[in-house]
Amino acid sequence: MTTWITICDTCKREGWEAGEKGNSTDGEVFAALVEKAAAGQVKTRRFSCLMGCARACNITIQASGKISYSLGGFAPDDEAAEAVVAFARFHEKSESGQVPYRHWPEAIKGHFVSRHPPLPES
Predict the structure, then answer these.
(1) What pLDDT is recorded for position 14?
(2) 67 within some domain
């Protein structure tokens, strides 16, 4: 099954002010970094508001029939983007979507918000 990284493109971290980074939100900056890191490896898509505003920048890692994860509180930087993609690649290789802790990139630890069981087939 194809694993998708969904990136909130409306996230604004505390202290965000229009004009400091152009008109780009922190979510837009993070989305561009994740998309760049994921190119040719994992599917990505942007979504306007994942409703985790208190923990911006937010993403989900999902695939049909697998455990899904919600994560947030990232700095919009290359290290975080690369860690998200690395975790998503392990998710994609896992039959259930569960990724053993030993495979978690250091920069993803402490950013998990929740995990969701797969939907039943019927």
Answers:
(1) 80
(2) yes
Distances (CA, A) of 33 to 58, 64, 97: 13, 25, 23
**Can you give the pTM of this predicted structure?**
0.92
Amino acid code (one letter) for 24: S
State the residue range of the domain holding 35. Answer: 4-116
Q: Whole-angstrom Cα distance, residue 69 to residue 112?
A: 7
Alpha-carbon distance of 26 to 14, in angstroms, equals 10
Rounded to an integer, what distance in angstroms lies between the CA atom of residue 116 and that of residue 36? Answer: 26
**Could you give the CA distance from residue 17 to residue 65 in angstroms, rounded to a whole number?**
40
3-state secondary structure of 115: strand
- Report how far residue 66's alpha carbon sits from residue 92's, in angstroms, rounded to the nearest whole number: 9
Query: In this structure, what are the phi and psi dihedrals at residue 8, rounded to the nearest 5 degrees?
Result: -70, 120
Q: What is the CATH number of the domain that holds 9?
A: 3.40.30
- Per-residue pLDDT of 13-24, as tens digits, reads 887 776 655 688
